[in-house]
Amino acid sequence: MANYTGPVCKLCRREGEKLFLKGYRCFSTKCAMERRNYPPGQHGKGEQFRHRRESDYTRQLRAKQKARRVYGVMERQFRRYYEKSLKRRGLTGLNMLQLLETRLDNVIFRLGFASDRPQARQLVSHGHFTVNGRRTDTPSMLLKPGDSVAVREESRKTQYFKELADVAEDRNVLPWLSRDLRGLCGSVLRMPERSEIDGNLSEQSIVEFYSR
Description:
The protein has 212 residues and is α+β, with helices and mostly antiparallel strands. It has helices spanning 8-15, 32-35, 47-51, 56-71, 75-86, 92-101, 104-110, 117-125, 159-168, 203-210, and strands at 129-131, 134-136, 148-151, 177-180, 185-188. A 5-stranded antiparallel β-sheet has the order 2-1-3-5-4, covered by helices on one side.
């Protein structure tokens, strides 16, 4: 499965805001947005680059790229989420965000079992989690209400998961999820509402981009 392996701090600088792709580092003074708050590349500091007028296409493209980068999804897969959202009842944009939110790697991140989505993706890929009692190593697996996620018994012996309950205790869990820290498990109670998804994402602009 294709995955972006370049410097993720450049992605935040290109979008002009923190996308929180490096966990705790994003909250420290080491964050690239704190030190170099301008787009990457040789023209990043130029006044013309920063103040040029943004077209509708550029606005839509940036909204799409931002969502892709937040969830760590490549273009072909992201478009498939859009096409799947079209076939569902309701608002296409909200349907798409709900699909992205219910990816297994995102649910692991939302439960506080990983500091960021890339780490959650790696933990799932290494087979540390079960879904409804069955081991899985597919980060893109879509969960539905009633599905349960848990750390494998074999994985609980590792140092990371031994310390996880204390580390994750300070991380809030969204209302559409439930979590048992001592049992290192959680479940999906319902589909997330729009107010429970990142507010800086513009799903309408994404729909407009693909509807051109």
